[in-house]
Amino acid sequence: MDFVSLNFYIFLAVILLLYYIFPLRKRWGILLVGSIAFYAFVSLEGLAVLFAVVLVSYLFAVAVGALRKKGKFLAGLVLFFGIVLVLLPLLAVKNSAFVIENLLKGDTTYWIVPLGLSFFTLQVVAYLVDVYRGKIKAQKNLLKYTLFVSFFPQIIQGPIPRYEQLGNQLFDGQLFEPRKVTKGLQLMLWGFFLKFMIADKAAIVVNTVFGNQEIYAGTYFWVAGCLYVVQLYTDFLACVCLAQGIAGLFGIRLTDNFRQPFLSRSIKELWGRWHITLGAWLRDYIYIPLGGNRHGKIRKYLNLIVVFVISGIWHGAAGMTYIVWGLMQAIYQLVGDLTAKPKAKLYELMGFEKDGACQKLIQRAGVFFWFLISVMIFRASTMEEGISVLRSMFTVFNPWILFDDSLFTLGLEWKEWVVLISSILLLIKVSLTQEKMCIRNWVLRQPLIVRWVLYIGIILVVVVFGTYGYGFNAQDFIYGGF
């Protein structure tokens, strides 16, 4: 049962009905029961791990909160052991195979992989640290704390919530507000559009090319690589939109996780717009405690490297590809920082208006290019495979495949290519518009007939042109695997 299954929406309808029937102060109990039921459906074998992480973090948070009054040293010591215990399942699942195979030269160990482990682990680590810092008080009610960790719209793929942002929304109960429900449904419609009109269509080409690397070369990898970046973005954004939209049906707001990342003009800016809650977590709980940029440039760059290596480890350590990908993000930012003044001078010498359209276009194209190069490593099973793909991209010259019928052999017919490209162009237009205004608020200001024409139009487009149904299976959300 996931966000694109009929069973989920039957389940959601039941939980919604019960939520608004029950008294306001009891509604958190419905969310708790629904969240546990949902997790049991999608990952029954992982439920024990989830409960273990919840119980351990609950007990340590209460202890840390009590010990803070007696002195930070003892509280800090308890915090340290609490974080270690909470991280153990994540480290075992993510990195034990790499350590055993590559460092210890042993046989692979297979673990039960609880869905959402990467996300709820970071969530509870942040909670523990915030209790230690005195930003929040430890939640004494174990059931309420369990709801905070397991809230079903966001547990599988985030966004990664903070207790001060989400806690009271869950526990106080929300009144039925048509505007919030409508905005939630709007987000869900957009999520379905992104998933079925872009991500799953792009996935067909991406899987065809990267699944048969011995057949394809050169421009094929450029096309598949660009589509993989698009797929990665729209698939994750679709899941976040659905999570936010579903939470919105209950009157609950989940924080944003993306803000038009490919309109960024530097890799540093990209990481302020892409997977925002992960970036904020790394900043607040790794980068700043390491010293941030407070101790000179060399220390700042070392801290950046540590942060992005940890980001790579968070994604996994299969064949070092994720770690190298993380290092590349740090190096991009380091080089970008060191070359900022020469680049500004170059733009001036070339006659580009500062912050003008041409300069923005070049910078955005550069961000997409360098991110694409790193993603070729990110997607590869091994470093050798990733390097082989990059070598082919830069050494094999076959651009004619863009103009003959070669692209139509990659799983999409010409009509589906038209739909995919048109959908990507619409996404670009929407992204540019969202930089200036909130489209959902604009829609809500329109006459009723205009709103319904838009809603019904999107539904019909997705139903008629979306990639699903007979002959297709909805692809699993990519970040569910992390």
What descriptors fit this protein?
mainly alpha; single chain; 19 helices; 482 residues; globular
How would you describe what is shown here?
The chain is mostly helical. The protein is 70% helix and 0% strand. The chain contains 19 helices and no strands. The chain has helices at residues 6-21, 27-43, 47-67, 72-103, 117-133, 142-150, 163-172, 178-210, 219-249, 267-273, 276-290, 297-315, 321-338, 340-349, 357-379, 383-395, 414-434, 439-444, 448-465. Helix 1 (6-21) packs antiparallel against helix 2 (27-43), helix 13 (321-338) runs antiparallel to helix 15 (357-379) and helix 15 (357-379) crosses helix 16 (383-395). 37% of the residues are buried.
Sum up the overall morphology in one term. Answer: globular
Question: What proportion strand?
Answer: under 5%
Rg estimate, integer Å:
23 Å
Let me know the largest β-sheet: none
Average pLDDT for all residues = 88
Structural class: mainly alpha
Distinct helical segment count: 19
Portion of residues in helices? 55-70%
Q: How far apart are the termini?
A: 18 Å
Indicate the low-confidence ranges by residue numbers: none
Compute the number of strand runs.
0
Provide the succession of SSEs: HHHHHHHHHHHHHHHHHHH
